[in-house]
Amino acid sequence: MVPIEQRIYARWLDIGTRVGLAMLVVGFAVYVFGVLDPHVPPQELARLWTLPVDHYVAATGAPTGWDWLRHLGKGDYLNFLGISVFASMSIVCYARIVPTLILQHDRLQLVLAASQLLVLLAAASGLFF
Amino acid sequence: MEWWLWPIALFAITFAMGIVAVLAGVGGGVLFVPLVGAFFPFHLDFVRATGLLIAMTSALSAAPSLLASGLASLRLAMPLALVGSVTSIAGALVGLALPTGAVQVALGCTILGIALLMWRGGRSAHPQVPRPDTLGVALRLHGVYHDPALGREVSWQVHRTPASLFVFGGIGLLAGMFGLGAGWANVPALNLLMGAPLKLSVGTSGVLLSVVDTSAAWVYIHRGAVFPMLVVPSLIGVTLGAKLGARLLRVSPALLVRRVVLAVLVIAGGRALLKGFGI
C-alpha cells in the first residue's frame, strides 16, 4: 500500500535524524561544558546577539558559507555538524529515491525528484548566499 | 542579566511551547518566532533562522513514521514541496535583505493573519472530491492509507492541483521570510483546497515542511545567522515539550488551549507590529 520509494525515503530519513540528533546533543555538551574553546565566548555572544546578522558576522569574524568546516575544532562550530546533518537529510533521501524512480519508469515523479534535488543542492552549496 | 540565564529561559519557554503547540495542533515554529522575537534580546535574523531549524528538525523527526505508516504521502508532497522550496529560498533572501523594522511589521501582520485563519478556519475529516483534476491525475496524486482510528482503509484523491501550486508557493515565501514553519497554512490548503483527508493532510504537511524549510534554512546557515546557544536549547525544549504534549493530548481541554494560543498570537503579533513601528 505504501509506495516503495516512500518506504525507502522513510528508512533513510529515520537513520539520518537519529544520527543528527546524537551529533547535536554530543556537540552541545562539548560546547557548554567547555571541552573545546568556542570561536565566540558566551559572554561576548550575549553582547552581540542583538545585532543584525551582517553586523554580527563583521564583529565576530563568524564564518559564512561552508567556512564553518574550518572551525570544527571550536566548541560552538562543532554543533554545525549535527545541524548540517539535519539540513542535508532531504537531499540524501531524494538522491536515494531517484534510482528507484528510474527503475519504475515513473518519469513525472523522476523529474520532480531530480528538480527538487537540484534546488536543495543549490541551496546547500551556498549559491544563494 | 547573566548570559547563561538566556539559554535556560529559552529551554523553559520552548518546552512550554512544545506542549502547547501539540495541544493546539500548530507547529512550534509559528509560536517560536513571534514570542522569542518579541520578548527575547536576540536579533530577528537569528530568531527566524532558529524558527526554521526548529520547524525543520521537528518535521524531519516525525516524517519517517508518518511516511512508513502511509499517513503522509510523498507523492502528494513532491510537487508542492518543489514550488515551496523555490519560493522559500526567495523568501529567506528577501527577509534578510529588508530592514528589520519592515520585517517586524510584515511579521506582525502575518501573525495576526494566522490568528484570524485559526479562529475562522474549519477542517473536514474526509472532504468530498467529486472529480480529480487533470494535473493531479497525471502526477498520480491519489492513494489509500490505513486509518487505525476507523479501523479501515481510506482512499483519497485531490483536486485543484494547479491553484494549490500557487498557494504553496505563497506559503513557502512566508515560511522562508519569517521562519514560521508552515503547518498552520499547509494543513488547511491540503485539506480544504485540495480535498485530502485531514489525517493525510497533517502527515503530508510535515513532510512538505521538512523539505521547504530545509531549502530556506541553508540560506540562513550560509549567511551566518545560526548560533548553537540559541538553536540547541530551543530544539531540545520544543522536542521534549512536544513529547509531553502528545501524552497530555487525551486529557487536555483542546478548545481552551486553542484560545490561549490565539490570544498569545494576537499579543505577539501586536508586539511585533509595535516593534516594527519603533514603539
Name the shape of chain A in a single word: elongated
Q: What is the helix fraction of residues of chain A, given as a range?
A: over 70%
Shape of chain B: globular
> What distance separates the N and C termini of chain B?
23 Å
How far is it from the N-terminal to the C-terminal residue of chain A, by CA? 41 Å
Q: β content of chain B, as a range?
A: under 5%
Number of strands of chain B: 2
Kindly describe this structure.
The complex is a heterodimer of chains A (129) and B (279). With 129 residues, chain A is mostly helical. Chain A has helices at residues 4-32, 42-48, 53-60, 75-103, 107-125. In chain A, helix 1 runs antiparallel to helix 4 (75-103) and helix 4 (75-103) runs antiparallel to helix 5. The termini of chain A are far apart. Chain B is 74% helix and 4% strand. Chain B is built from 11 helices and 2 strands. Chain B has helices at residues 5-24, 28-39, 44-69, 74-97, 100-120, 134-138, 161-178, 183-193, 198-223, 228-248, 254-276, and strands spanning 142-147, 152-157. Chain B has a two-stranded antiparallel ribbon. At the A-B interface, helix 1, helix 2, helix 3, helix 4 and helix 5 of A face helix 3, helix 4, strand 1, helix 9 and helix 10 of B.
Describe this structure in a few short sentences.
The complex is a heterodimer of chains A (129) and B (279). Chain A is mainly α.
Spell out the key features of this protein.
heterodimer; A: 129 residues; mainly alpha; 0% strand; elongated; B: 279 residues; two-stranded antiparallel ribbon; 11 helices; 74% helix; globular
Secondary-structure blueprint:
The complex is a heterodimer of chains A (129) and B (279).
Chain A: H1 4-32, H2 42-48, H3 53-60, H4 75-103, H5 107-125
Helix pairs in contact in A: 1-4, 4-5
Chain B: H1 5-24, H2 28-39, H3 44-69, H4 74-97, H5 100-120, H6 134-138, E1 142-147, E2 152-157, H7 161-178, H8 183-193, H9 198-223, H10 228-248, H11 254-276
Antiparallel strand pairs in B: 1-2
